Amino acid sequence: MKLSSRTERGTDDIELLGRMIRPLCSWFADQARDLPWRRTRDPYCIWVSEIMLQQTRVEAVKPYYSRFISELPDVRALAACPEDTLLKLWEGLGYYSRVRNMQKAAAVIVQQYDGVFPQDEKLLLKLPGIGPYTAGAVASIAFGRAVPAVDGNVLRVISRLTGSSEDILLDSTKKHITGLLEAVIGSTDPGILNQAMMELGALICLPGENCSCSLCPLQNLCVSRRLGITDRIPVRNVKTKRKMERRTILVISDGIHGALRKRPEKGLLAGLYELPGLEGERTEEEVLSYIRSLQLEPVRISKLPDAKHVFSHVTWIMSGYMVLVEELKEKSGNGLIIFETAGGETGFAIPAAFEAYAKYLNIKKGREALLAASGPSEVG
Ligand code: SF4
């Protein structure tokens, strides 16, 4: 069946969205999850939760959110927080540029707005790390402004509801859907409507073939359901292909201490702490030669299982080695940061990309645990 064009649909879609509001908001009032950030209208708390929820599941965000708000309860505290403490609070959430931008934005709010969040979404949009979605969410939920907050969930719900075959990865589609919502959002509580659409997308109108239309408050209005095309909508024409990079990761220890180093201040995982490593897939001999170049004396080397980590634009394919060395010390020029492994806690923010190997530094039995790794070979 041929779907109608955008211009043919325009006013019909606005009318349909108008009819969506009452059943959707009533469903939200009954079924919304009780989430910590829904118990407040404090723009700071809503902002923190929205940034954390980008690319991270609700259940995973909850403990991070509580800890973050308890340690840094307002923009002044965030603006003044030392970088290492901030990154530690974010450790495991990934996409660290998000929290760095939050701190920059907090500094602007303190300096330019005397620590008070601006209400106007156009002013919010000028803050570092705040795009149209976050500006819409904060402005509508905290201040009741009639601004849509269009994320992936909302794009999916509205595309399906209206039966749109437009590619949701295109900016033009996002603008079009934002425009449709702008036409109706002023007729209700904008914060509730935005959250209700997101909640429906998160709980009922799920991606792929997983939507639970029989539980949906919009089932009698939904064009995709009527046409039996919910599995084909939304359309996403993915064009980009992720780059693959091979790396060799080194777990260096003397049985009591482990070694980290700081990543460069620019680029992927900028300024975070990592396990030392080399580009490419390296042999045992190449690794040992590198270890000696760090002025360390290797005792044993063991191959660790391969691992993979997917970033948004690149995938790391990692091979790993555990290297037991004689006394591990910070020496001038080797760039290593040495820490005691006994507590299993480094005190440094180590990105999730290194998770598969960082676990080998949680050494509580001392030297034996290192030597127990598979297939160790003596270094002559
Ligand atoms: S009826 Fe189904 S496809 Fe339509 S909005 Fe509801 S869950 Fe989504």
Could you explain how this protein is built, in words?
- The chain contains 15 helices and eight strands.
- It folds into two domains: 6-232, Hypothetical protein, domain 2 (Endonuclease III, domain 1); 243-378, Nucleoside Triphosphate Pyrophosphohydrolase, CATH 3.90.79.10.
- It is of the alpha+beta class.
- The protein has helices at residues 6-31, 43-53, 58-71, 75-80, 83-90, 97-113, 121-124, 132-143, 152-162, 171-184, 190-203, 223-227, 284-293, 355-358, 367-371, and strands spanning 243-253, 257-262, 273-274, 277-279, 298-310, 314-325, 337-340, 377-378.
- The strands form two sheets. It has a five-stranded mixed sheet. The chain has a three-stranded antiparallel sheet with strand order 3-2-7, with no helix packed on it.
- β5 and β6 form a beta hairpin.
- It is elongated, with a radius of gyration of 25 Å.
- Helix content is 42%, strand content 14%.
- Bound molecules: iron/sulfur cluster.
- Residues 157, 160-161, 204-205, 211, 213, 216, 218-219, 222, 224-225, 230 line the site of iron/sulfur cluster.
Count of DSSP H/I helices? 15
- Give, in spatial order, the strands making up the sheet with the most strands: 4-1-6-5-8
Question: What is the CATH fold-level name of the largest domain?
Answer: Endonuclease III, domain 1
CATH architecture of the largest domain: Orthogonal Bundle
Apparent shape:
elongated
Mean pLDDT: 89
Helix content: 40-55%
CATH class of the largest domain: Mainly Alpha
Domain tally: 2
Q: Tally of extended strands?
A: 8
What separation lies between the terminal Cα atoms?
73 Å
Question: What is the structural class?
Answer: alpha+beta
Query: Which spans have pLDDT < 50 for at least 5 consecutive residues?
Result: 363-376
Small ligands present: iron/sulfur cluster
Question: What's the CATH H-level superfamily name of the largest domain?
Answer: Hypothetical protein, domain 2
Radius of gyration from the alpha-carbon trace, in angstroms = 25 Å
